[in-house]
Structures are given as structure tokens and as C-alpha cells.
Amino acid sequence: MATDSSSSTLAHTIHLPSQPGQPVPVVAASGVSGSDFRNAIESSLFKQWLKNIQTQTGMLANGAMSLSQVLIQGVDMFGKRVGFLKFKADVVDKETGLKVPGIVFARGPAVAVLILLDSDGETYAVLTEQVRVPVGRLILELPAGMLDADKGDIVGAAVKEVEEETGIHLNLDDVIDLTAFLEPSTGCKIFPSPGGCDEDISLFLHRTEVDKGIIQQLQGKQMGLRDQGEFIKVHVAPYKNLWRMTADAKALMAIALYEMAKRDGLLPSLQD
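Structure for Nudix hydrolase 14, as requested:
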């Protein structure tokens, strides 16, 4: 991808192989600083989006759509890296000349783990309860977290999030990638809100047998990284009730994948 830029006008030009001879201007909205603009166009979030639109299943792949401009609207830094990025992409349907909706909230990949604990003939699911400001509610959800796209260690990130949020230590070999059972054409990821957000989620499973005392120790345990604003309370609930007691999309998607994988015999060692 060839590029050139002009810091005085906060503009940047990209040249996409899928659009030869059709350079794409990237410009900053009013209020976006020079440093934020540079961070945005150099971020893994933006680079991954550019890569996605040019893949075999990308929106520019068959030549029916074209990208004419990108407007960088906002940047939130997580330390030295871009955590959240908001931009508007002008994507045009060539046949009609009409734009398709193109507002993007980019946050990148994430992981979540369905932890099932068998004890005294009952299967329990481990959940976390924490404040979710965007919806203004406390939410019961699976242990989960954002993946640092620059590192890309998906399984390691899943194990790390579980330990930080629940105190449970998992070995890398103890988790099963449920999203790996999806057809390759899906990218083996789940997109919970593709109409506005680029987030893709990898869902994992861990199932093991434990003493009843472990269930009691986990129930109500206070966890989370306080210096990062995490105030987490661990809950343990009967798995059979999980689908009715949580509004967490990650949990409901994990249940669906787990149950379908069991039905199709893809988890022979975990069959009930």
C-alpha cells in the first residue's frame, strides 16, 4: 500500500491494489489533533480494516463497490496504542452511484470463555458481573476482554482474561476454540454488531470437574484490575439456567456453539 501525507492539512492518501488509479483521501474531522490523526492511520485497527475490505470476501473484492474517502472522527488511546477509533468511510455502489452506510466504530478483536464446572452431578457456568456504562447497567457475562491486535495471541489472551476476572488459572491446552468449528468462509470469528462495529469475537470453552468447595469459593469473589477501572464480582450459576439469566450476547452465542458442537459430535470427550 503506497501512501503520502501532509501534516499541515491533516490529510493522507492511500493507494489500494483493489482500486488501481483511484487514490483514497483520508482526512481528519474538526477537533482531531495531528497526533491523534497520525495514530489513527498508523493503528492496527485502521490497517486491519483496510486489509479486510480487500480480502476475497471483502466489500471491494468483486469491483461492485468503491471507497472514495475516509474521515477520521475520533481516537481513544489506551496507553500508547489506539484502543477505539471512529471514522466514516464513503463507500459507493458503482451501479447506482449511491453510498452505503459507512460509520465505523473500530475496537478490534476480543475473546470470551465459557467455563463449565461439573460438581456433584450438576454443571455450573462461571460469570462475571460488572458495570457496563454504555448500557447503564450491571451485566452478567462471560469472562472476556479485548485482544491487543499488535500481539495476536488469541488463546493466551483468553487464558489471561479468565485469570484476571475470575482467579481461575487455565493451561493453554485446556481450552477449545468453539469458533473454529464455523465454516472457513466466516473467518471463524463472530461479529456481534457488524452494522456499526468491527469487533470480532473468538469464543472458547473450558470444562472440568471440581469439588463443591471450589464452587463456593468462586461465588461472590471480588476480582478485576482496579487501576484499570475493573470492579468485577464472580457468579456461579447452573448451566441449564444460563440462557435465561443473562443478556450477554457472548454467553448466548457460546451456548449455541457449544450445544451444536455437542450435537454434531465435535466434542466427544465432553459429551454428557
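DSSP finds six helices and 15 strands in the chain.
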